[in-house]
Design goal:
The structure holds 2 protein chains of 2 kinds. By secondary structure, chain A is mainly alpha-helical. Chain A is 67% helix and 0% strand. Chain B is α+β, with helices and mostly antiparallel strands. Chain B is extended and about 80 Å long. The chains are: A mainly alpha, B alpha+beta. Chains A and B meet through helix 1, helix 3, helix 4, helix 6 and helix 11 of A and helix 1 and helix 5 of B.
Chain lengths: 215, 324
């Protein structure tokens, strides 16, 4: 599905990229309650925040609320941003906190039927392949639903978002060793399931579209 | 070599994004407005009274529990104990609370905050609402937040209308205090904020409405440098007042009808006073916001040539550089 242009008005897009407000300026504006800055930040980060939430949750159904929660968390917490990490990493941290709270609330009631991106496979894939990918991803998220929220988050950031362990640790506010342990535990659980499930095993072994494009 | 699992993100539809954005910024406005409710400092005398207040409150709580346990009289018009959101469709809605009557017009959304001892907050998300407020204590005012505009009231009847970031306040009786970007204006019965008609502006001798901050017509205008107020002739000068009124009218029209706003700015540019400066710069900025880069450049270059020491020269120069 093609992305539509954002609903925000023209000037922000008119400004050349080099003249776009930098992180510090944007943060200053947001902290001062400048609505234009808040909207600019939302506009700049919304697709990235959505992508991260989607990869963590595996479905778009709760994302209306979660995206709002994530941005509210960002806006509320911005006064505490100390520029110790990049703004993006710091925003990801807020998103992960919101996702963590969501998993805690959810109390393991996975909506399996919804757990599936329709566009899992590329346009070139056959209908059978698409169906198989869909089913495999459904099984993956079904398995992720059984994990501890921290393990799930670490795994999705590492194995689906493709972030290095150092960044996973930064986003989850833990040490690299802890992050590695969480990923390892999650991977063990998923691989255990994959031993009994060839489709899931194949999915875990399949290179992603990103990798196909940039080997 | 590890590779990411092939889960591709399914995009959200523009409609869902629009809904998310609307709800998010409505919540942001509510939170921001709640933070601006007045707070009273804890005076030394209050420290002495505080233990007695606590004791009285406890006694009242016990009485309330007893009252609830033994039944209570039928409900009359109530006051809200938690925030409520009212969205109207094709028909409006009439709401009677203890100290407030609301007529929410069709296609409007209002969030009514809980009534507390610090006051009551009402956020107008879109549309318009008529508020009839019985006189209240000045320390517990009703505050209506509509975008960046805040209306503080202690007892009056007025209408607030919001279209995007453009807000209009019409007072039927009483006085309200409208705050926008730290500019405070008092609007009396029969007056409208921001002052709408040029004639009304010219004939008004009080500074209450005339001195209102120029309305923020749109985000487009906000995100570009604002015209700096050049030195203005005294308000008794009718020509200057008329030019000012036309300028303000054009500023208000920028969002709803940019073509007409441009035409109005053009009529002001020909003069040599400070409003001509402002209008020339404002038109350049508006053309840039509309994507008419060539025209914007031409207008801004003319501004730099005509008013090299103008109040907006730095902004004009910066905008020109960006456009190049």
């Amino acid at each position: 599905m093609a992305q539509q242009p954002s609903p925000i008005s023209g000037t922000l897009r008119l400004v050349p990229k080099s003249a776009a407000p930098d992180d510090a300026e944007l943060v200053r504006g947001c902290v001062a309650g400048d609505r234009v800055a808040l909207r600019a930040l939302f506009e700049r980060e919304r697709l990235r925040v959505h992508a991260l939430l989607f990869r963590i949750i595996g479905s778009n159904s709760p994302l209306d609320d979660l995206a709002q929660e994530a941005f509210l968390e960002v806006f509320r917490s911005l006064p505490t941003f100390r520029h110790e990490s990049s703004l993006r990493t710091w925003i990801d941290r807020c998103v992960v906190r919101v996702a963590y709270a969501y998993f805690r609330r959810k109390a393991r009631t996975p909506a399996l039927a919804e757990c599936l991106p329709d566009s899992t496979a590329s346009g070139a894939a056959s209908a059978e392949e698409r169906t198989a990918m869909r089913e495999a991803a459904r099984r993956l998220y079904s398995e992720l639903d059984r994990l501890e929220p921290n393990q799930r988050l670490a795994f999705t950031l590492f194995a689906i978002e493709d972030r290095p362990l150092r960044e996973v640790a930064a986003v989850m506010d833990c040490s690299v060793v802890t992050a590695k342990l969480r990923v390892w535990r999650a991977r063990q659980a998923i691989e255990k399931r994959a031993q009994r499930d060839p489709l899931l095993a194949e999915f875990l072994a399949a290179p992603s579209e990103r990798e196909k494009e940039h080997p | 070599m590890r590779h990411p699992l092939p889960v591709q993100v399914e995009p959200l539809s523009p409609q869902r994004w629009a809904k998310i954005e609307r709800s998010l910024f409505s919540r942001v406005e509510t939170e921001m407005a709640a933070r601006t409710l007045p707070t009273e400092s804890f005076q030394p005398w209050a420290r002495r009274v505080f233990p007695w207040l606590v004791a009285s409150s406890l006694a009242l709580m016990v009485l309330a529990v007893l009252w609830l346990a033994t039944g209570r009289p039928a409900d009359g018009p109530g006051s809200l104990t938690q925030a409520s959101r009212i969205t109207t469709g094709s028909t409006g809605s009439h709401l009677v609370l203890r100290e407030l009557t609301l007529d929410v017009d069709p296609e409007s959304t209002v969030v009514i905050g809980a009534a507390t001892e610090r006051g009551m907050l009402l956020v107008l998300d879109r549309g318009s609402v008529v508020c009839d407020v019985t006189p209240r204590s000045a320390s517990a005012p009703l505050i209506v937040q509509a975008g960046a505009t805040q209306i503080r009231v202690v007892g009056t009847r007025f209408r607030v209308q919001r279209d995007g970031e453009a807000v209009k306040v019409a007072v039927e009786h009483g006085v309200v205090e409208v705050t926008m970007n730290s500019h405070v204006s008092r609007v009396r019965a029969g007056q409208v904020w921001p002052a709408a008609a040029p004639a009304a502006l010219a004939s008004t001798h009080t500074n209450e409405v005339v001195a209102a901050a120029p309305v923020e017509p749109s985000e487009v205008r906000r995100s570009s440098p604002r015209p700096q107020a050049a030195t203005v002739a005294p308000t008794t000068n009718e020509t200057a007042s008329s030019a000012q009124a036309r300028f303000e009218q054009a500023a208000r029209l920028e969002r709803a009808d940019p073509g007409q706003a441009t035409a109005l700015y053009r009529t002001l540019e020909t003069g040599s006073d400070s409003w001509a400066q402002n209008a020339l710069y404002a038109r350049g900025r508006l053309e840039a916001a509309r994507g008419n880069t060539t025209e914007a450049r031409k207008v801004l270059e003319r501004y730099m040539a005509r008013f090299p020491k103008g109040a907006n020269r730095d902004d004009a120069r910066a905008l020109l550089q960006r456009l190049r």
